[in-house]
Amino acid sequence: MRLVITECKRILGRGGVFVFLALVLLASLYHSRRNLERYNQYDEDGICVGWPETLSEAKRMSEGLYLDTACMMELKKDADTYGYLNGENINALISENYERKTLQELSKEDMEGFFEKRVETISENLAQDLKKNYTDQETERLMEKAQNLSELPAGYAEGWKTLSENMGNFVFLLLLLLSALLLPVFGRDSQVQMEELAHSAKFGKRKLEQSRIASAYLIVTALYWCGMAVYFIIVMAPFGFNGAGQPIQNDVRMFYSLYQITYFQQFLINLLIGYAALLFLTGLTLSVTIILKNSLAGASVIAAFCAMLLIFNQVYVYQVDHWFANFMTVKMTDFRHFYTGNEFYRIWGVSVPCLNWSVMVSLVLSAVFLMIGILVLRKNRKKGDCR
Amino acid sequence: MNEKVEVCGVRHKTTGKEYDKEGKGKMKRQIVMEYRKMWNKVSIVAVIAMCLVTVVHLLVYLNLQYRAIDKDGRLVEGLASYRALLEASKEIEGVMDGEYIKKLKTSYDGSYDKAYLAEHRGFLGTGGMTKYMVPNYFINYAYYGAYMSNGNDKVGLDYDFLDSEKEFYDTYKRTVKEHLAELEIYSEKQLRILEKKADRLATPYKTGYYQGLANLRAWFILDYELVFVALAFCLSGIYTKDHAGGVTELALSSRYGRRNNLRARWIAGNLFAASIYLIYLLVQVAVNGFLASLSGWDLPAQMFWFSCLHNITIGEGLLFMFAGGLCGGLVVGNLVLLISIVVKNRKFATAVSVIAAVIIMRAEKAYGFFQRFNPFHFKSDALIEDYLFIGEAAVPYFAIVFLVTAVYVAALGMGMKLSAKKYRMN
């Protein structure tokens, strides 16, 4: 344990913690500012209503609000009934559900059939999505879930919506930062000849390597949760924490999602997906630096790998995403597709949702990378290789 | 010791000429030595990673995304589709004069391809290819102008202006002028100047197969960021103190060593940046050429860049893009060298260089001035299509790129020179 603590200190000194926290703080504040700017209302002279007023009005006027016929009728009569932001949100949901139609174009019958229309659109989307080649059972299962939504609270949940939308970018950035921290764990510095010393000690080799691996996982785990806590507080604080229990379909980006979960549950799931992606990147970074024995050479491979994932993400090819990119860091931190993609993996006759399978494969790959790293270390140890 | 001797420099008080030759020779040797030193483990790994990602990206996407209707009307999928399209396209090669357009209409109307496209509405928009794409898209541009895009609905030939060659090319030139106006980046006066250029376009145009070159252009742009990432890793150690190939006490302590050695490193760094870029380009050309051939170099650029106002071929247009790419690489290479000499610590210099490269790449999404002067934008289609105005003179964007590159490199070089003077080991 003492070795692990020493290694942790070597990887991340006091200065390192300070720099890490400063970067996380900076990124969180930048994200928060960008998020809040969207809630300013503008006229010809500039900002006419600032975000604090917009948000407090939305909070005040959406208590107990449900998106039902009565709500739509009220809004149709008077566009300001529920305030600016609630009105915008409800109109966005209506436009999404009724093929870009406005509220004014809807009849009472249309409004009454709001959820039937949603189910109909989901059914059409599933039928048109030929690449995914749904089986009858899968379609049935998805349609059952689609029908489960029979009422939609339209209360205030702006903080959670923003978090759900932008959290992926931050998690990706955090993952890159943490993997950069791990580069010196096995990436040796040619100018500091400590390897020979460590390897000449009686129990130095194996114990040192084990403690380095343990400390790497310990540090990234601690920093990930710490970084996410800082981000969560900074992003959510200006919005308030209201709306955690609202269903995610209340957000227009998630309207067609078939996951019956609340914003808070979605946040927890995203946190866990991000952690799985982190374990994958940690395994990859450790194995690459163990094999290359050089932190910068390892960094160049990780950078090229991440650049490749970002390049692959620019063009959608179903097979690439389905068989490769879904398990990799970029797609794993692009959380939205897990909730709206309705993608399945058929594993021994069982249809497993993309979210579950991606996390599982990512964890397995992480373990495989770690095993490769350990095997290379063992081989080097047997050879007495210090270079 | 009143003789003024410069080991790698220029002057000798009495026999300056002989020393001059020796000095130049030594400088050359020093550059070669510095250049060789740059091919260290980190650089080799970074360059191999860049090449591997490029090849994997090409092979995977070209294989999965594309399919073509061959000359017998069969659908060929994957990598074989390009050769099938090349073979089929031989039937539509020729100069698009009045006679050709009539034949094309008849051929297309009775073709299997047209019937297939009518049944498969998403074919062309999702990586499907037919031999009629090149001439038909060009003709459709004359109708749709700025709103032209790939797809089944913009490949038909039912246009009245196709009745005569003159009417077709007049319509085409008019559309080009309208397209330029719709960009809203030129004033009325500037538009008049560009319109005169449009009138001077040398029609009729030759048509044929160019899919290999189209892939080359697309993947060259898509993967270009790998060059910036590789440069950040390869060049960041040149001037650092903590790196085996970096600056040492010896290099700084000799009377003329500091200036000449640091200069040799700068020249070698630029040569190295150019080498990395050329390796990248070579991989792109080799893989694309091998898979889909480089046929179509001699077709007019307008077949590819519809609103291009230069009377050049596709090959020449691509060479301009490649030259622009080299310029972007050199600017970023010099920026990394500057970071290296200022920071002096290899790991920190690499981190700062990578962050700087990412910021430059992200900033390309900006509009106007910031986009046009961004080195990451130097490899874009704007090189062939855009003009900047200096007074009433329309200067092609590629000329501006070459000029701006010289300014960037000179400014960064000055920065390096200033930092070199103050370089201390402690």
Specify the helix fraction band of chain B. 55-70%
Strand order of the largest sheet of chain B: 2-1-4
* Number of β-strand runs of chain B: 7
What oligomeric arrangement do these chains adopt? heterodimer
Uncertain stretches of chain A: none
Alpha carbon gyration radius of chain B: 26 Å
Nearest-integer average pLDDT of chain B: 90
- H/E series of chain B: HHEEHEHHEHHHEHHHHHHHHEEH
Task: Report the count of strand segments of chain A.
Answer: 4
Short description:
The complex is a heterodimer of chains A (387) and B (426). Chain A is mainly α.
General description of the model:
The complex is a heterodimer of chains A (387) and B (426). With 387 residues, chain A is mostly helical. Chain A has helices spanning 2-11, 14-37, 51-61, 69-77, 83-97, 108-112, 114-128, 136-147, 158-186, 194-200, 204-236, 263-292, 295-312, 318-323, 329-332, 336-340, 354-383, and strands at residues 41-43, 46-49, 344-347, 350-353. Chain A folds into 2 domains: 2-36 and 156-383, no CATH class; 64-147, no CATH class. The relative contact order of chain A is 0.12. In chain A, the strands form 2 sheets. Chain A has a two-stranded antiparallel sheet with strand order 1-2. Chain A has a two-stranded antiparallel ribbon with strand order 3-4. Chain A is globular. With 426 residues, chain B is mainly alpha-helical. Chain B has 2 domains: 22-58 and 210-421, no CATH class; 94-207, no CATH class. Chain B is 62% helix and 5% strand. Chain B contains 17 helices and 7 strands. Chain B has helices at residues 16-38, 41-65, 80-89, 98-109, 112-119, 133-144, 165-182, 188-199, 211-223, 225-235, 249-253, 257-292, 314-343, 346-363, 369-372, 382-385, 397-421; strands spanning 67-69, 75-77, 94-95, 128-129, 206-207, 387-390, 393-396. Chain B has a 3-stranded mixed β-sheet. In chain B, strand 6 (387-390) and strand 7 (393-396) form a beta hairpin. In chain B, helix 2 packs antiparallel against helix 10, helix 9 (211-223) runs antiparallel to helix 12 (257-292) and helix 12 (257-292) runs antiparallel to helix 13. The longest helix of chain B has 36 residues, at 257-292. The two termini of chain B are 31 Å apart. The relative contact order of chain B is 0.11. The A-B interface holds A 180, 190-191, 292, 294-297, 299-301, 303-305, 307-308, 310-312, 314-315, 317, 319-320 and B 41-42, 45-46, 49-50, 52-53, 56-57, 60-61, 64-65, 222-223, 225-226, 229-230, 232-233, 237, 242, 244, 346-347, 350-351, 354.
